């Protein structure tokens, strides 16, 4: 992936900064003066605009959806001390502790939905300019600005920016690492390799699954440098080794934990998630915006863009294909041993959006005007509006807030509430407390536990059951669901949360 050279008239002509590009930096090269000059760039102006829009979309109506199971788990862990959070990770929590540590500190401002989701939303918006630099470093500024637009209006990214989990946080750190990875390949500076190793390690401390692209990037770097010739290879490979050594040193405390958790995670067949080839279409659907026509449109542009990248920068095309194929292949294999969900592969976004953005060159070859960049940006914004609008007006997460309001109206003193599975107590307790109506809260994750609890509470008042689809993950036999169908009366459903009641005798 050699340093980019502007060689063709097409590349020169498709420049939104035709007047700005020819300006030289004045003799006063202070930071503020260079900043003033940079702000004259049309690219920088557009990226700033998209970043502002990104902040709006990620903070607008951020508390509309109630806290759901995974977010409640984040809050539950974040309330512990720093050392306790580490011990929780070491003893079986399948997520590294960095994001939980960040959430631990922000809890000084409270535990509202806004506070819990602030870090993902803030870092999610801050990733938009990073996507510009990723596209600029890999291909050109046009690809960068289109990639920034795609991320700013990405329903997938907006959704996880308003989710108190680590996904947009790990994408932020990974995007920084990717920028300096491109810089390191282009210029071979030790400082770039060091920063790449540092942020790769931070990303790994945020989410384990990012190890896959990081592994692929180091492997590609070693192969890429080997084709430069022995003299340059032995000089450059030392910088990669230093970077890799720094990465390993920083993640060293996590290595043994990661191996042990991986063995536990893959020790039994997954009870939820997607398996095999079913993962791939769902991944494309989610990262493309859910609407079928938009999915087909964006994926077609991605294929066109990869052809254009191959024509312009073959090594960059090989690199992107290598990372995508490695991630998809390993995900395919692992899906039969551990739960696999599309959001785990959020690190694919910069590569996917780079491919889509690079398709502008095909249209520029036909239309011969830089305005094609603006047109594509407008199209991407417009096609995202229906999905984004629907997201802000329709609950997309389990609605525990309304369950917390309805439950006190249904129950009386001495009634029993059984949660299926048992860990639903975390999101329920965020909105409901049994201190006011003095109910008894129980949890069951399979048929045996449910029957035992039901028998023990037979002398109490009424019994209410709250169940979500998670019960199929803890009770694959479906016996619990069958028991409910036979012995309870259905009350209603709230965004995937099912309520039942059973009248007990005596």
Can you walk me through this structure?
This protein has 506 residues and is mainly alpha-helical. It folds into two domains: 338 residues, no CATH class; 103 residues. It has a five-stranded mixed beta sheet with strand order 2-1-3-5-4. A hairpin with a 2-residue loop joins β4 and β5. The longest helix is centred in the middle third of the chain and has 36 residues. The protein is globular, with a radius of gyration of 26 Å. The N terminus is likely disordered.
Question: Could you name the key traits of this structure?
Answer:
five-stranded mixed sheet; disordered N terminus; 2 domains; 506 residues; mainly alpha
Q: What profile does the largest beta sheet have? A: 5 strands, mixed
Span of the ends, CA to CA: 77 Å
Following the backbone from N to C, one meets helices and strands in this order, namely: HHHHHHHHHHHHHHHHHHHHHEHEHEHHEE
Radius of gyration: 26 Å
Number of helices: 25
Lateral arrangement of strands in the main beta sheet: 2-1-3-5-4
Regions with little confidence, pLDDT below 50 for 5+ residues: 1-10
Concise synopsis of the structure shown:
By secondary structure, the chain is mainly alpha-helical. The chain has two domains: 56-393, no CATH class; 400-502. It has 25 helices and five strands.
Strand and helix map with partners:
Layout: H1 9-13, H2 18-21, H3 31-38, H4 42-59, H5 69-78, H6 82-90, H7 98-106, H8 113-138, H9 141-152, H10 155-161, H11 167-187, H12 190-206, H13 211-226, H14 230-265, H15 279-288, H16 292-312, H17 314-334, H18 349-357, H19 360-367, H20 371-393, H21 400-410, E1 416-420, H22 425-431, E2 440-443, H23 447-456, E3 463-467, H24 471-474, H25 479-487, E4 489-494, E5 497-502
Parallel strand pairs: 1-2, 1-3
Antiparallel strand pairs: 3-5, 4-5
């Amino acid at each position: 992936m050699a340093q980019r050279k502007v060689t063709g008239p097409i590349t020169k002509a498709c420049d939104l900064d035709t007047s700005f590009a020819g300006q030289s930096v004045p003799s006063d090269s202070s930071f503020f003066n260079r900043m003033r000059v940079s702000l004259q760039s049309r690219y920088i102006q557009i990226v700033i605009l998209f970043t502002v829009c990104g902040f709006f979309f990620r903070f607008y109506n951020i508390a509309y959806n109630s806290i759901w199971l995974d977010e409640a788990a984040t809050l539950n862990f974040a309330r512990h001390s720093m050392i306790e959070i580490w011990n929780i990770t070491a003893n079986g929590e399948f997520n590294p502790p960095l994001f939980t540590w960040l959430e631990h500190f922000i809890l000084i401002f409270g535990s509202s939905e806004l506070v819990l989701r602030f870090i993902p939303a803030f870092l999610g918006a801050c990733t938009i300019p990073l996507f510009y630099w990723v596209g600029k470093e890999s291909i050109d500024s046009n690809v960068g600005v289109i990639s920034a637009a795609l991320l700013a209006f990405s329903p997938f990214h907006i959704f996880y920016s308003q989710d108190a989990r680590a996904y947009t946080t790990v994408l932020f750190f990974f995007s920084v690492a990717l920028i300096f990875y491109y810089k390191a390949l282009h210029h071979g500076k030790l400082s770039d390799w060091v920063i790449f190793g540092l942020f790769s390690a931070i990303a790994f401390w945020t989410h384990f699954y990012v190890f896959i692209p990081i592994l692929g990037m180091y492997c590609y770097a070693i192969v890429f440098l080997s084709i430069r010739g022995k003299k340059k290879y032995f000089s450059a490979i030392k910088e990669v080794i230093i970077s890799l050594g720094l990465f390993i040193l920083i993640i060293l405390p996590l290595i043994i934990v990661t191996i042990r958790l991986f063995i536990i995670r893959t020790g039994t067949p997954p009870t939820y998630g997607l398996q095999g080839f079913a993962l791939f279409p769902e991944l494309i659907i989610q990262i493309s915006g859910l609407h079928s026509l938009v999915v087909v449109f964006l994926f077609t542009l991605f294929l066109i863009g990869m052809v254009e990248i191959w024509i312009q920068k073959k090594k960059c095309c090989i690199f992107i294909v290598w990372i995508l194929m490695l991630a998809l292949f390993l995900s395919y294999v692992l899906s039969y041993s551990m739960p696999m969900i599309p959001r785990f592969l959020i690190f694919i976004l910069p590569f996917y959006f780079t491919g889509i953005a690079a398709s502008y060159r095909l249209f520029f070859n036909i239309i011969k005007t830089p305005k094609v960049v603006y047109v594509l940006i407008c199209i991407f914004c417009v096609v995202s509006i229906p999905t984004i609008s629907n997201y802000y007006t329709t609950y997309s997460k389990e609605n525990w807030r309304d369950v917390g309001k309805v439950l006190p109206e249904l129950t009386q003193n001495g009634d029993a509430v059984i949660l299926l599975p048992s860990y639903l107590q975390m999101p329920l307790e965020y909105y409901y407390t049994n201190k006011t109506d003095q109910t008894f809260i129980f949890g069951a994750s399979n048929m045996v536990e449910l029957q035992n609890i039901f028998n023990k509470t037979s002398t109490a008042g009424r019994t209410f059951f709250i169940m979500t689809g998670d019960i199929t993950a803890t009770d694959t036999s479906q016996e619990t669901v069958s028991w409910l169908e036979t012995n309870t009366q259905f009350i209603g459903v709230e965004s995937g949360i099912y309520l039942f009641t059973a009248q007990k005798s005596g």
